[in-house]
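Batch manifest line 337
LIGAND: zinc ion
JOB: complex structure
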Amino acid sequence: MIECVFTLDYEIYGDGQGDLRRHVYEPAEKLREVFLKHGARFVNFVEAAEFERLEETRSDTAIDLVTAQIRSLHETGFETGLHLHPQWYNATYRDGRWVLDDREYNLCTLPRARIEEIVDRALRYLRRVVGDPGFTPLSFRAGNWLFQPTQPAASVLAERGLRLDSSVFKGGVLSGRGIDYRPAARSGPYWPFQADVSRADPNGALVEVPIHVRMVRPWKMPTPKRLALATAGPRSRRSWRARLARLRDLARPWLPQKLDFCRMTFDELVSAIDGVVREDREDPTFFRPLVAIGHTKDLADALAVDRFLEYLAFRSIPVSTFSAVVPRLAPLPTTLS
Ligand SMILES: [Zn+2]
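JOB STATUS: finished
ARTIFACT:
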């Protein structure tokens, strides 16, 4: 049985340049409208670090619209998840530009005490914005999908009550950042993990529900140049090395293409899930939560999302959130033969 979980990375990704109203608020409003029309909800992965800093500096006055929107989405049943780009906490704002702290680009490489400080600060921010001091998000997505080395970050999140991560994309390699999610290709649609997010471990306190991908030829992907630029991170002395590493990662015969509801056309979205629909017909008893990803900044065509939701209803595929999915995850095994 398939259920689709739409996750929205709610942020201005990249180097911090962008207009909050145009790149966050307006596309999220369009998506809210489309989802409500279908009686559906998405998981709103709010990037806590960036919005807190934008609020402090008032560098974009639309920040108040954004925080009000986070709260109202939360209050109307859209699930609030924690998304973190820690390089924002030490960022400086000069002459109308943000300079992010590349030393804190990957939360997982920081000392445990610093990870705790960052996670606690992000949770305090979310609680204030949603107006609920007792709120703890259920789910986490790491900035730039960087969730290796997985410990101690996973323990810090689990100790604070988070239950689920959705950072992995099977087959993913970001060698410039030390990320290798290829071992996850052997796992099922979800798995508990402990030492490494890409390997199932029944003793894990968190469960991984990865972003759905299909393996495609490189020419089916967005251009390597665009990807290399988008994932290399902010300008820094390391960035040419990061870009070279990224180009090397992309020089593989098959690459993982994420199920991206903000970038893909309607036809691409449909063909991306058709394989899973076929597998599911053969074994409908197996529970397959299917995670789609989108970024507010990328929303090209809200009508394509509208049509895709209609298509899912036609296929009798429910649209869910993690809070609805988690209680129904079987403990183990989740490895497909
Ligand atoms: Zn992000």
